[in-house]
Design brief:
299 residues; mainly alpha; 79% helix; globular; Membrane protein; transmembrane helix; EamA_dom; membrane
Length: 299
């Protein structure tokens, strides 16, 4: 019996890790497709984001149907809306960074600082206690981010801060989710995100200079369909991964998104990251894994 249980756990671990790696690969292709659409083909970042998430919403309709209207029952509608607004702003800043030529290797590495913003926000706004080891890991993670950002370099541009802002906004959205899940079901949190993200992106696109732009030509539409479908598949893959095993086990596999995005950036744009990327990324990944280790010891 114990051998059977052990075999089942091992199988679940392999399946969970595989789903996580697959999600990372899908997101990497999505990022390169969105960067090509905005930076090369000239579609505005706000419009590209709206069309991508509209396609993702259509692809996720079976999931929405499965959750059902029962998932809309809530006593915290305002917090749901605020959380989705933060997530949508994060997406907008992320795609704006890609559209303005921030190399994908730099953008994805800076985005990996998001968990450290969650640590800070959880301590100051949710009253969660963070150990000195976690604060040290957070500081090391931000040092890694600064090495990648390299604001002292002559080639530095302010648009490089856009992925950092996206990381801050997504970290804030995660804090709202943690607060919601104290009283709300995971189905409710998921349903509101799926239903509200596209309308919020529509409003942001309409308010942007030039308004909402219709894609021109089949190349744009094929790239948007690819990004929308892969984005939805990636989100579903993440859900499958977290269903199989705990988040702490999956963390190292999540970090594989960096080399996957570096590979896509090289294949699509011939970008070769400099040495400071790997030094900064090593600090961020090391700090993240150390934080997971500390949490496991304390639990």
């Amino acid at each position: 019996m114990s051998v059977s249980r052990s075999s089942t756990r091992a199988s679940a671990a392999v399946i969970g890790a595989s789903w996580m790696v697959f999600a990372g690969a899908a997101f990497a292709v999505t990022n390169s497709a969105m960067q090509y659409l905005t930076m090369v083909q000239g579609l505005s970042s706000t419009s590209a984001t709206f069309w991508q998430y509209l396609i993702s919403l259509i692809a996720m309709l079976p999931v929405i149907w499965r959750i059902g209207v029962g998932g809309l029952r809530t006593e915290q509608l305002a917090l749901h809306v605020f959380r989705v607004f933060l997530a949508a702003l994060g997406v907008q800043f992320w795609v704006a960074g890609l559209a303005n030529g921030v190399p994908i290797w730099q953008a994805i590495a800076l985005l990996m600082t998001s968990p450290f913003f969650v640590t800070i926000g959880a301590a100051f706004f949710l009253g969660e206690k963070a150990s000195s080891q976690r604060w040290m890991a957070t500081a090391v993670g931000f040092v890694g981010g600064m090495i990648i950002l390299s604001p002292w370099d002559d080639a530095f541009q302010l648009v490089a801060f856009l992925p950092i802002i996206a990381a801050l906004l997504w970290g804030s959205s995660i804090l709202c989710m943690k607060k919601l899940e104290e009283t709300e079901s995971p189905q409710s949190v998921t349903l509101y995100l799926l239903l509200l993200l596209t309308p919020v992106n529509l409003v942001l696109a309409l308010l942007a200079p030039g308004g909402l732009v219709m894609p021109v030509g089949m190349n744009m539409w094929w790239l948007l369909i690819l990004a929308g479908l892969l984005g939805a598949i990636a989100q579903g893959s993440l859900a499958m991964a977290y269903e199989k095993v705990d988040a702490a086990y999956l963390q190292p596999f999540d970090h594989l998104k960096l080399p996957l995005n570096v590979l896509c950036g090289f294949l699509v744009f011939a970008w070769v990251p400099p040495g400071n990327l790997w030094l900064g990324a090593a600090l961020i990944i090391g700090a993240s894994l150390y934080s997971v280790h500390v949490e496991r010891k304390q639990s």
